[in-house]
Write a structure and sequence with these properties.
With about 450 residues, this protein is an alpha+beta fold. The chain has helices at about 15-30, 65-75, 100-110, 160-165, 190-200, 215-225, 240-245, 280-285, 290-305, 340, 405-410, 415-435, 445-450, and strands at about 10-15, 35, 50-55, 80-85, 90-95, 115, 120-130, 130-140, 140-145, 150-155, 170, 185, 230-235, 255-260, 265-270, 315-320, 330, 350-355, 360, 365-370, 380, 395. The chain has 2 domains: about 10-170 and about 325-450, 3-Layer(bba) Sandwich (FAD/NAD(P)-binding domain); about 175-320, no CATH class. It is about 30% helix and about 20% strand. Helix 1 (about 15-30) runs parallel beside helix 12 and helix 2 packs across helix 3.
């Protein structure tokens, strides 16, 4: 075991959207930050190629800022920012080139002098009187032990909180949302694809929104006029439905598609799924890869053979990691509940906004989608980031305290960026003010700090 390293004031576990935002925010507020990541490169789902959902409500109003906007600006400087697109049902997604985002993340962390510890796997932690004192990591050169004043668990799975003894909830493996492997294809004939969308609206999911007063045909025309494919090809349509029935494509709700690079004429796709997998079970999660790769190749072949615009398309890349939608939810001082999400409720201690519809994928073609009332947004209370029974730990991202249905909304990347900013800012304030417990923070002061640094907490639906 290496000697204990006591230099960081804030240690953040996990460098997905929540972890990157937390690291940037903590550093922006004066903390000495170490960001620990099990993979050899930071970014998580931010570099998977997926659109960043949850950044805007269904009315097209922005709900995140701060580190999120810094990352998007980094993509812009590299020619990799397409921007927010509407799918004419429930969702705006900020479309980016993942190759640009990879570099933007490294730049933003380096600019703030965040210490990156990559290929570092958490395997234990020490807790005394409700406080985490050290975390033990397995690294390439052996083992290391780190101490800090405050910790942020942005691991997605709540790994640090779980090891520290926090209560959590997790469905049985058979009930968990399926895992997926997204992929991208290049050389897509965009005009031909857009004409297909315009002329065959019945093949797509359209007009599913409380703020849309248009027919599916009118929505398809609006997509065509926008010129870019941000739309799901529905399993209820003839084209995908026939392919699923024949076995040419694995059963899925839809082929979700979005642009990832205009210069490469590239489209991102999400159409693979494997249910009954516990993403915290390393063996089970790892064993999904061969089947998901098979689904990727079958999906690419289906698009090439059956969907106008893809005749000359080539498989460009797949995400570097299998994507996990659902595992542990840490029990916090406050639980984000279904009603808050569905009814777009406000909370005086809100530190981030969520807007994505409740989205719970099931096996095969099953999916539950419940919109936020009026296409608006809801507040995530600060207590959702504070695990019960622990004093110097905050959680952010997918593992925050929530019911299962509410988590189906707040788990998306835009909301993870927002809760990450809140957790990182709070962690730095704890260090700066000499507090030993986030419950000591004045939430009104935290809200004011977040707003001053670009977070969107007020002024939008």
């Amino acid at each position: 075991m290496h000697a204990v390293n006591r230099s960081p004031e804030v240690i953040i576990l996990g460098s997905g959207p929540a972890g990157v935002a937390a690291a940037c925010a903590a550093a922006d507020n004066g903390a000495n930050v170490t960001l620990v990541e099990a993979s050899p490169f930071p970014g998580g789902e931010l570099v998977s190629g997926l659109p960043v959902d949850g950044c805007l409500n269904a009315r097209g109003e922005w709900l995140v800022g701060g580190p999120a906007h810094a990352l998007f600006e980094g993509c812009k400087r590299r020619g990799g920012y397409i921007g927010p697109l509407f799918d004419w049902r429930l969702n705006w997604g900020v479309c980016i080139d993942p190759v640009a985002m990879r570099r933007a993340i490294v730049e933003e962390l380096a600019r703030r002098r965040v210490r990156l510890m990559l290929s570092s796997i958490l395997h234990d932690t020490a807790v005394r009187d409700g406080r985490i004192t050290t975390v033990d990591l397995t690294q390439r050169q052996g083992r290391a032990q780190l101490a800090a004043d405050v910790f942020v668990d942005a691991s997605g799975d709540g790994a640090l909180a779980m090891l520290a003894g926090a209560e959590y909830e997790q469905p049985e493996a058979s009930a968990l949302q399926p895992v997926s492997l997204t992929f991208r294809v290049g050389n897509v004939d965009m005009p031909t694809l857009m004409k297909f969308i315009r002329d065959y609206p019945e093949e797509f999911m359209l007009a599913e929104s409380p703020v849309i007063d248009k027919s599916p045909a009118e929505c398809a025309r609006a997509l065509y006029d926008a010129g870019l494919p941000f739309v799901p090809l529905s399993a209820k349509g003839r084209v995908l439905g026939k392919a699923i029935a024949s076995g040419a494509v694995a059963p899925c709700t839809a082929v979700f598609m979005w642009p990832t690079s205009l210069t490469r004429r590239e489209v991102g796709l999400n159409m693979t799924r494997l249910a009954g997998i516990d993403g915290t079970d390393n063996a089970a999660w790892s064993a999904t890869l061969p089947e998901l790769v098979r689904q990727v190749e079958k999906g690419a072949a289906f698009l090439k053979a059956s969907v106008p615009g893809f005749a000359d398309a080539v498989l460009a890349d797949a995400a570097y990691s299998v994507g996990v939608r659902e595992t542990r939810r840490i029990r916090g001082e406050t639980v984000l509940n279904d009603a808050t999400v569905r009814e777009a409720l406000r909370h005086a201690d809100g530190i981030a906004r969520g807007t994505h519809h409740i989205d719970i994928h099931g096996a095969g073609t099953a999916q539950t989608r419940i919109p936020v009332r009026g296409g608006g947004s809801y507040d995530i209370p600060f207590g959702c980031l504070i695990p019960c029974g622990l004093r110097n730990l905050l959680v952010a991202g997918r593992c925050l305290s929530s019911t299962r249905a509410a988590n189906g909304s707040c788990r998306v990347m835009g909301t993870c960026l927002a809760t990450g900013q809140a957790a990182g800012t709070a962690a730095a304030m704890l260090v700066g003010e000499g507090f030993s417990d986030p419950r000591q923070l004045d939430v009104s002061v935290l809200r004011a700090r977040l707003t001053a640094q670009g977070a969107v907490l007020d002024g939008v639906a």
